[in-house]
Amino acid sequence: MPYLNKFSAHNFILRDWLALDRTILANERTILSFTRTALVLILAGMTFIRFFGANSWSALGYLTLAVGVILWLTGFRIYLGRKKNYHAYVTELQTEENDEQEKEEKYVPTSLR
Known about the structure:
Elements (H helix, E strand, L loop, with lengths): L13 H39 L3 H51 L7
Helix pairs in contact: 1-2
């Protein structure tokens, strides 16, 4: 992730952590939107198949059903990819923050030795 080099955990303030939380919540809203849209397409496809029987509308029903499933799988793949990136980013920031704290604890001024 190229943007990790630009920021350090030491410079993060509450506003930055809250922005990251808002980004994670936006990702969850996005998967819910994908799910809602896919569910509507799947139900529309099932309705076409059930009520119109074996004619041209039935083909539209199967097509809509397939598009709904593909849309949901695509949305879920996007969600997991972004979640993985956010998790790696937070882990990197926390590791950097812990390293900085350890360096501060190990440092003993020469006047105190």
